[in-house]
Amino acid sequence: MTLAAAIIVAGGKGSRSGRDAPKQYERLLGRQVLDWSIEAFRAHPGVGAIVVVTPVGSVPAGRDVGVVRVPGGATRTQSVRNGLAALDLPTDTPVLIHDAARPGLSQDMITSLLGALSTADAVAPALPVSDALKAVRDGKLVTVPREGLSRVQTPQAFRLGSIRAALDAAPAALVDDIAAMEATGAQVKLIPGDERLHKITFPEDFDMVARLLSPFTSVPRVGKGFDVHTFEPGDHVTLCGVAIPHDRKLKGHSDADAAWHALTDAILGAVALGDIGDHFPPSDAKWKNADSAIFLKESVRLAETEGYAVTSCDITVICETPKVKPHREAMRQRTAELLGLPLQAVSVKATTTEGLGFTGRREGIAAEAIAVLVPLTPAR
Question: Using an 8 Å Cβ cutoff, are 53 and 9 in contact?
Answer without folding.
Answer: yes
